[in-house]
Amino acid sequence: MTMNDTKIALVTGASRGLGHNMALALARKGVDVIGTYHSNKTEAEATVAAIEALGRKCVMFHLDTGNCSSFGAFAVDVKQALAGNWGRTTFDHLINNAGIGIHASFAETSEADFDRLMNIHVKGVFFLTQTLLPLIADNGRIVNLSSGLTRFSLPGYSAYAMMKGAIEVLTRYLAKELGPRGIAVNTVAPGAIETDFGGGAVRDNKQINDFVASVTALGRPGVPDDIGPAVASLLTDDNRWINAQRIEISGGMVV
Question: Is the pTM of this model over 0.90?
């Protein structure tokens, strides 16, 4: 595979959790990675090292996906990285993965928490994708991360889930509007996964872990390795005709 044949994926939130796993899974399939991290530079550097150990290139940038005013400068950084590392003006795949979890009942959800979720999960995804659109190659792909919580309801996630629902609608509109450029856009909706997301509740709280296992057809919560390789597979040419879909990866949760 020559440099010009190499695919490049931009993964937000690539330093930890599912984003880290996706970045590594893509590298294993021969894809180079541009990643973003929010706060932990050490984790970001470890991700770069792990991807380079697989023989792929990785560049990592700091980005607050909830701060739209920073997106223009970020796009300039990406453009320079593409030129300097790959001799290209575009990348192939955008994975809007970065996110946070806030657990609060509907009655107790604060406006501040609502706005924080909105800025990261809806406004940020919308305007980051818009900003990066000129840098996404024709016939490329976009994957937006949603959640099983848009299909089934668990108390405490009303704000988070409604915003992921918005992303699912946005995915269909992007697929329609970007179709003339050959860009396929899909939503991946993980079920409950054992990561540090939301304070690591699924991973570390036995009661929650047992509950998730009890309502999942395959009898256990998910782990990052259930998600990253599936996303990497979705971005291969084997799945080029999948478009405008919500793909749930939950082991059959609440079926």
Answer: yes
